[in-house]
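Sample pair:
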Amino acid sequence: MGVDAVVVGGGSAGCVLAARLSEDEGRSVVLLEAGEDYAALAELPPDVVNANEPTFGHDWGYVAEPDELDRAIPLPRARLIGGCYFHPVGTCAMGSVVDARGAVHAVDGLTVADASVMPTIPSANTNLPAMMVAERMSGWLRED
């Protein structure tokens, strides 16, 4: 069985992208996520439900490089379906790494459709912009 699209990461953008692409009955879509998928709200662990603090029980354990004072801070990144509120931007910025439709330069068939394509940090939380990028790019991918 062939697969038409593989979406890596079930965060804010990945869930939107996979949902939109799978609306086409003739397209097979695989969503890869390393974390858990809690089927019901009642199944969510307390550290996920309480959004006042980072979810260290469901993250990758990343820690920032120590600064000049040898301080290193945790960088919590969600590892579960739905993702988290933190979305790095600019790591695959449009124009330098990807074109205006998210296609990676010099890599055929690879598209980036999340907050990393934004060249600058928006003045608000990046969750909604990440979802909007995925929504728009899914439309372009469906046209292709």
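Strands lie at 5-8, 29-32.
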